[in-house]
Write a sequence for this structure.
């Protein structure tokens, strides 16, 4: 008999009652160090007092009115994102997949309005993850997520990750855009090199394409910059954002230059809940913290400290760990043992992590991590790796 909640998830046998900072607590009081952060969502940890206050204040005045009317906090958040990024305009939605969908529609309509409706195809890369809708699983190209959902949505041409020659060879008169994550998350914490990202920008300019970046997981401070593409000193034409931008409240955004954004005119796209007053209050509260002087510098410093400790663990446990990947607080442990075995051992020892492709364990802790959290995490990881090494011996 099917359960009341559709069985679409392989859940761990635990339920959490409350959260505080970098910790989650079960009803019986067991504490877990959360290095998953809801898959990079709880960017400021659990129940951050500034976010709680902003949500409570907004909840007591207005929850929803729809985009038939002006929403002042939406305008304020859009302007702040425009001021802090490459973008000239922002569309608010509820999730990363919706932000990607918005960008894909923008790409097609941009070329349609330019008199080139035949340009609709998007180049993507192997190992990508862009969401769970029919078009975003087609963009990602993973057989695991495509299984059973044929026919695959047309319009995507996939090439190897990091190979600029293959990207350029895939460009045809039908190509409209290039879509890529600056750091692949689900695919196994694979950062794109600076040269690759700069090469994509140059190719897009040369062939009249739109460069579309998916920063749903790697954005909003996770790498120690506000957005990951800033490390390569390039700018996209379109960028999808979600997860950390709402700090745990469902929220997404599609940012674009004026050239790209003007393709979406009144009636060409919309959402009932996107940009609602509750989400906008929380989004502005997140930016209050992330844009504070010194905040991103602290993310970079604590990320470097964690990375160094993980490098030491790899050296001490070569039979369990093969290496460390990533930047800032978006890190991955490439495993020698099955990554699920390490996840389970960490869970038993009171630490939550996230699996990823290529046999990787993702470490995506809240950006408010402190030195004490790093020491605790490294101790749990050390003990867990030692236990797995002993078991394998």
């Amino acid at each position: 008999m099917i359960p009341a909640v559709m069985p679409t998830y392989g859940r761990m046998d635990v339920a959490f009652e409350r959260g505080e900072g970098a910790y989650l607590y079960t009803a019986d009081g067991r504490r877990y160090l959360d290095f998953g952060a809801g898959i990079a969502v709880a960017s400021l940890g659990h129940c951050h007092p500034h976010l709680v206050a902003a949500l409570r204040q907004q909840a007591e005045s207005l929850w929803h009115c729809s985009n038939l009317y002006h929403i002042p906090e939406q305008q304020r958040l859009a302007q702040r994102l425009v001021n802090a990024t490459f973008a000239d305009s922002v569309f608010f939605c509820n999730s990363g997949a919706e932000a990607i969908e918005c960008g894909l529609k923008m790409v097609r309509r941009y070329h349609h309005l330019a008199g080139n409706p035949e340009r609709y195809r998007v180049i993507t890369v192997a190992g990508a993850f862009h969401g769970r809708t029919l078009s975003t699983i087609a963009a990602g190209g993973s057989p695991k997520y495509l299984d059973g959902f044929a026919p695959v949505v047309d319009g995507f041409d996939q090439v190897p990750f990091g190979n600029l020659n293959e990207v350029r060879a895939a460009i045809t008169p039908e190509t409209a855009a290039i879509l890529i994550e600056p750091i692949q998350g689900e695919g196994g914490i694979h950062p794109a090199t600076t040269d690759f990202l700069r090469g994509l920008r140059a190719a897009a300019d040369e062939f009249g394409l739109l460069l579309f970046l998916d920063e749903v997981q790697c954005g909003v401070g996770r790498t120690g910059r506000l957005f990951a593409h800033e490390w390569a000193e390039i700018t996209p034409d379109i960028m999808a954002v979600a997860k950390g931008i709402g700090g745990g409240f469902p929220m997404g955004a599609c940012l674009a230059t004026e050239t790209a954004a003007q393709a979406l005119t009144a009636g060409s796209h919309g959402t009932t809940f996107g940009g609602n007053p509750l989400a906008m209050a929380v989004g502005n509260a997140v930016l209050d913290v992330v844009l504070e002087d010194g905040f991103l510098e602290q993310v970079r410093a604590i990320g470097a400290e964690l990375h160094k400790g993980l490098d030491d663990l790899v050296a001490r446990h070569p039979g369990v760990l093969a290496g460390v990947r990533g930047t800032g607080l978006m890190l991955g442990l490439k495993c020698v043992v099955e990554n699920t075995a390490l996840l389970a051992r960490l869970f038993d020892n009171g630490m939550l992590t996230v699996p990823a492709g290529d046999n990787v364990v993702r470490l995506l802790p809240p950006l408010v991590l402190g030195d004490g959290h790093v020491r605790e995490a490294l101790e749990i990881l050390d003990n867990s790796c030692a236990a797995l090494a002993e078991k394998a011996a």
